[in-house]
Amino acid sequence: MNLIVLFVKLMILCFTRMGILKTLAFLFYYLLLVTGLRAQYINVDSLVHLPGQDSPVSISEFISLMDELPVNDLFAGQEFFYGQHIPAVNLLKHFIVPSNGKVISRYGWRSGRMHTGTDLKMEKGDTVYAVFQGIVTRSKYYYGYGNLVEIDHGNNIETSYAHLSAFLVEPGDVVRRMQPIGLAGSTGRASTNHLHFEIKEAGKHFNPELVFDFEEGVIKDEVYAIQGLADLLPDNKQPVYSYEGTSPHSYIVTAGDSLWKISRKFKTSVKTLCLLNELNENSVLNVGMVLKLF
Length: 294
Prior knowledge:
The protein is α+β, with helices and mostly antiparallel strands.
């Protein structure tokens, strides 16, 4: 209120000393000054904070940066590229092989058990690299995988690196393509030093050799023309979790079975089995019950 009284007195003083025209000019200038200051207000909800940037940028500036920055300068997010949906091909074509090891065991069914990755021969202590940038979601000892690193690359694409002798990253780390993430070894269920490598899309395993030519150390040409990993399957009809032969879609419960045993046998998770079959982790399995596996 005091400011209003002061303003009125100032206008009266201006009028008596400068006349009406100069007073109106002063008032017009004052209004321009006030509105100009107010126009500098910025809605922070419209700004994007980028790692490594001293100040936030606007949405339009951010979109321009996304178009200009090379792939190695883009940052990983919960959904890669800060929530934008990028077709899988735009990620996969920039992947590298995790090591130069020779394939010693392929993806597929073997001895009644699903082998959900590709084994690459390595010596203990050899460096294992991230195939692309992303966020480390796991870096710990995990059952038969031994020391395991998992990386979320966004757009539902994940990669796993198992049997490591040492970790070079921790959960939550943002890693770059070609960044060392661990050292090869034989921890867990392994008979020799090697890297067990897996790739998944939307939680489902794919044969890594559909994407990688490990012998040449490059990405296969077919990857450059796909919109998703499922497009790499013959006629897009083969189940994504099968490499050769026929794999079961379901399993009949026998005496002594548990969700944990079944998940281990078919290389899936208890959570997945529960979701597919409307169960919970404490559900009782009856002999003869048919469970969906994938």
